[in-house]
Every structure is written in structure tokens, then in C-alpha cells.
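Worked problem 6 (solution included).
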Amino acid sequence: MKKALLSIGLALLGAAAAAASAPAGQKLDLPAGAAVVHNAGPGRWGKVPAVALQPVRVLGDVDSDDETVAFHMPSGLAVDDQGRLFVLDSGNHRVQVFGPDGKFLKTIGRKGQGPGEFFMPNFIDIDDQGNLCVGETQSARVQVIGPDGKIVRTLKLTEGAVGEARMLHKGGYVMTAGPGGGVFRLQPGGQPEAVLPPLLKILDASGKTVREFGKPAEYSDFLVNRMANQVMAVVGAADDVYAVFPSQNRIEKYAADGRLLWRADRPLSYSMEIKGKGEMKNSGGNMSIRMPDMSRCASGAAVDGKGRLWVATLARQLKESERVSVMATMSNDNGIVSASQKATGAVDLRTTDAYKLEVFGPDGAMLGSIPVKVFVDGLFIKGDRLFLLDRVRGVQFHEFKILG
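Solution. The predicted structure is:
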């Protein structure tokens, strides 16, 4: 069994390893003391995984007549210490609450922009006190709701671009770059920023920025920088932060103070090189954008009760016959904002062999992988319970128990 090659550097060794591991078109530098983990082969477990997934239930059904489980574009799920499930039903502007047995309990919120109301919410989490955090990137707002259903506080985020937030155990939040790498903006005159801003930031309980960290990859192209530097953040038990990149073969772990501990990659069956850079056109005041043609390698990440990082990874790229496109529209009619989302393409498919779950140890070494037979648009874990989100096809969560 091949072992991960772990290079832990002094300044020169770390810089040399970073340069050697940087894909063409990138400029990556690692700080002194950070490690580079090049994973190879099937991982420490070998060809037979040391864990298994036992199916528990499927929650949600696009064809259901029961409106409590007829989700529309759900984007997240959180589980409290009592085992209750909180489904962020984004397209319906609500949170659906289910018991540990999967039975519907209640609805939190409704469409609107007032206290306790939601408008296209896109991230959800629960802190150690049982407070529910529901965020809206579009409205730059986070609402924290107590176990009693009352609003604890509302954060109006005004400092820079707003991405998705995860709650820290010691209080505060870690927030990613805005959607589509939204921290990368054009300056007046249409020129991109000269220096790319950090990818992650720590916010205090009031929403103020405490620190920023996470070095973006520089591709010398505005649209590629936006797309390639999208990142998913996962919080560990000690408020360490894992950063997983959907469009880079790159996984990182940061200490609670923002220090980079290691960067890892793993073998993929496809290239992550840029196929096309995309294009922006401005004609008559209308902007049209064709996004870069890039492979996607990750679609979700979470840490289990044993401190292992799980990453939903593409075993192969989706075929044209498997792809789905989501069209989002927004309008403002005399101050009344409305939005809708519609999926087109292979929406009737429910199974595929395109995804696998890769498991990594706290040191970045890959332990192994487990194939799955569903489409994965999100990955969520609470203790030994794992949930895979199929957001636009079956519109449901597949629940498993982690054995091992």
C-alpha cells in the first residue's frame, strides 16, 4: 500500500514543495512550517475501506404531495444535540424541522425580509448552545434563532463580500468568499483588483471581522480567479478550519488563529487544468458573462465525530446526459423583490457512479474512499450520522450511519 508523501518544511523546503505542486497557471506560496501532503494510491486503508455507510432514510421527495417534505432547492441541513433535523428549504424560504425519527415537527420562518422571515436563505448551522444560524448571502444578513424560536440577534454584514458562514465553538463565525468567488471584484474602469483578498475571515458575534486568512491562487484572469477560488469551509472540534476547493485539487487546514497547517491534494482521474477562460462583454449597458470551462472535483465536505474530514469528490466528470442547469431570476417591482429558480436538463436521474466520499485524517493523509450511487450537491455530518444532499434531481437528503 502506498503511503502519502508528507513534506514538512522549513522555509526553503516548504517553498520548493509548494512550487512543485502548483498546477500550471497558478502561483502558490506556503508559509514556513506548513506541510504539503501529496496523497497517492487508495489511502491508508488500502482497497477495502475501514468504514461503511448504513442507509437510514431518505428525507424529501420532489414528487411528494406532502408539502412538508416537498422541498424546493434545499441548500443545507443542521442537526442539534437532540437529533432533530433542520432542513434549509431555500426555494420555499423556510426551515423545516424533523424529529430524530424523520417525522415533521414544525416550520420556522416564511418568505419576507423582516425578523424571523427569510428570502432565499443559503446557509444554516447550529452552535453549541442550540442556537440556529440562518444566513442570506443575497441580503447580507444572518439571523440567530434560539431554541425557544425567538430571535437572539440579527447580523447585518457590511464589511466586504458575504459568503457562507459556519459557527465556531468558542463563538463567532468563519465566513468564506462570496458566491462565485465574489470577493474578486472589478475596480472602476473595469480592471480587476491588483491584489487578491484572503479567502476566509473570522467574524465576532456581532459580525465584525477579526482576522482574514487563506491565500487565493493567482491565475492572471479575473473570471478564472473568481471560479477557481470558490471554497467550502468546515469547522473542526478545536475551531480549526478546513478549506475545500471545488475547482482546485486543494484541501487545506488552518489553526484557530488562521495559521496554515497543511495543504493536501489527491489523485484524480481527470485534469484540473483550465479548458477555457470565459468571457465578459458589455454592450449597451448590459453585461453578459460566459464562465470559464473548468472541471469540478468537490461538492461537499464535513468533519465526523472522530475528527475525520469527509469530502464528496467527483470520481469522474459528469456526462452531458447527466448535467443539470439552474436558472435563477430576480426582479424588483416597486420595491417588492421576487426570485425564482428552475432546474433544466437531466432532472429525472436519481443514480450515478460519478461520486465518491474521500476520508482524510487530521494530518491531511487520505485514509480511503467509499463509492456512492447518488448525486451529491452537499455533505453534512453530525456525530456518526452523514447526510448527502441531492438538491435539484430527487430534491432530498440521503441519511446514513457511519460504521467504523
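Discussion: DSSP finds two helices and 30 strands in the chain.
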